[in-house]
Automatic annotation (TrEMBL):
Keyword set includes Metal-binding: yes
Record-linked Pfam families: Terpene_synth_C (PF03936)
Keyword Nucleus: no
GO biological process: terpenoid biosynthetic process
Annotated protein name in UniProt: Terpene synthase metal-binding domain-containing protein
Residue ranges of every copy of the Terpene synthase metal-binding domain listed in the record: 67-338
InterPro entries: Isoprenoid_synthase_dom_sf, Terpene_synth_N_sf, Terpene_synthase-like, Terpene_synthase_metal-bd
UniProt keyword annotations, A-Z: Metal-binding
Domain of life (superkingdom): Eukaryota
The organism of origin for this protein: Oryza brachyantha
Gene Ontology MF annotations: magnesium ion binding; terpene synthase activity
Length: 395
């Protein structure tokens, strides 16, 4: 009981990921007087079967990531495949979500390469070129039966008996990006094609939502790069309008939904339309992500190319010191959590965003930034995938 109370004081139980709580309780339940040995054995077996599947998926993803990371040669980017898979594995661990986990981890990896390029390496002009190329998405490739294939933005007023249309990324845009990004752009195209191939015929429409979200996220990354280049300190509200979008408000929901089978009505076309509007529950989840990330970043210290964080914008606007700004931003994270709690009961797909947001409480526990500094998650990774025993999230 003392250990359970201690965990709840660090992270309230409603915000603690269920999968991680299960890991702890499997050990703690055995020590309870009058526990059911058969029930405990079945629970352990269920956990181990899921872990076995997760390790197979992780092996497949590790091979995919190593080939991608070694080919794009963006050595400035974080090598964090296991950490990204960890997130999705905590969000939905069940066998039926295997495809969803793999798709999420792959899109997350591609997004991380793009994010680090904008954030820590590319010049402003290179950022503009990359964004220009990424916007060449969802153009229509006109395959003419008489030759002269070309791209168009709109396929209207064309006679279908003379051509066929394929909605895809414009591969010729590789010439726009800097040379060191050529392979990244090529791999981006091929991976989106492979992701589309992994969908059932009636699910193909989903790829356009993830592409559009990827494009939109790129635009917000460029916006932040412009701020950083200009040494511009926006007002707090102006900062939040941009930073919650760059933090995943547009991209995370379709990432979470893309690989989910629609048998239970969680990932229908109507749901994809709904999340594309960035409803309040998604904004609240992105606010939690932004606030926790910026508190951790401020605590760790500003890097040369970092745009102003929410903490710094709050300090500049309200004329307060860092401690006061951190406290204010933490209070805003609490308010965002309350918004999520109120809204998540209205639509089942919102629960996926809530589950993802729970993982952030672990990633950013105590003001640390465990995705950037992956060593902070070693204990968690070992506990979830390798060791049998209680989890110490402070490791």
């Amino acid at each position: 009981m003392a250990k359970q109370v201690s965990r709840a004081l660090e992270i309230p139980l409603p915000r603690f990921p269920r999968r991680l709580e299960t890991m702890n309780y499997l050990v703690e339940y055995e020590k309870e007087d009058g526990h059911d040995s058969m029930l405990l054995e079945l629970a352990r077996l269920n956990f181990d079967l899921a872990r076995s599947l997760h390790l197979k998926e992780l092996k497949t993803l590790s091979m995919w990531w190593r080939e991608l990371y070694d080919n794009v040669k963006l050595t400035y980017s974080r090598d964090r495949l296991v950490e990204s898979y960890l997130w999705t594995c905590i969000v939905f661990h069940e066998e039926e979500y295997s495809r969803a986990r793999i798709i999420f981890a792959k899109v997350f990896g591609l997004q991380a390469l793009m994010d680090d390029t904008y954030d820590v390496h590319a010049s402003l002009e290179e950022c503009r070129k990359l964004n220009e190329a990424i916007q060449r998405l969802d153009q229509w490739l006109v395959i003419s039966y008489y030759g002269n294939n070309h791209y168009v933005d709109e396929p209207a007023h064309m006679h279908s008996h003379t051509y066929k249309l394929i909605c895809k990324w414009d591969s010729s845009a590789v010439s726009i990006v800097p040379k060191y990004l050529h392979m990244f752009y090529i791999k981006l195209l091929s991976n989106f094609d492979e992701l589309e191939d992994s969908l059932e015929p009636h699910e193909k429409y989903r790829i356009s939502y993830i592409r559009n979200a990827f494009k939109l996220t790129s635009q917000y990354y460029l916006h932040e790069a412009q701020w950083c280049n200009d040494k511009y300190v926006p007002g707090f509200e102006e900062h939040m309008e941009v930073s919650i979008m760059s933090c995943g408000c547009a991209l995370l929901p379709p990432m979470l939904l893309m690989g989910v089978h629609d048998g239970e009505g969680v990932a229908t076309r109507e749901v994809f339309e709904w999340v594309a509007t960035c409803p309040d529950v998604m904004k609240a989840g992105a606010e939690v992500a932004r606030f926790l990330n910026d508190i951790a970043s401020y605590t760790a210290g500003k890097k040369k190319k970092d745009a102003c964080s929410a903490v710094e914008c709050y300090m500049a606007e309200h004329g307060v010191d860092g401690d006061a700004a951190v406290a204010a931003v933490a209070a805003l994270a609490e308010r965002a959590w309350r918004t999520m709690n109120q809204l998540c009961v209205e639509m089942d797909p919102a629960l996926l965003m809530v589950k993802f947001t729970r993982t952030l409480e672990v990633i950013y526990l105590g003001g640390r930034e465990s995705y950037t500094f992956g060593g902070d998650l070693n204990g968690l990774i070992a506990g979830l995938f390798l060791d049998a025993g209680p989890l110490n999230i402070n490791v």
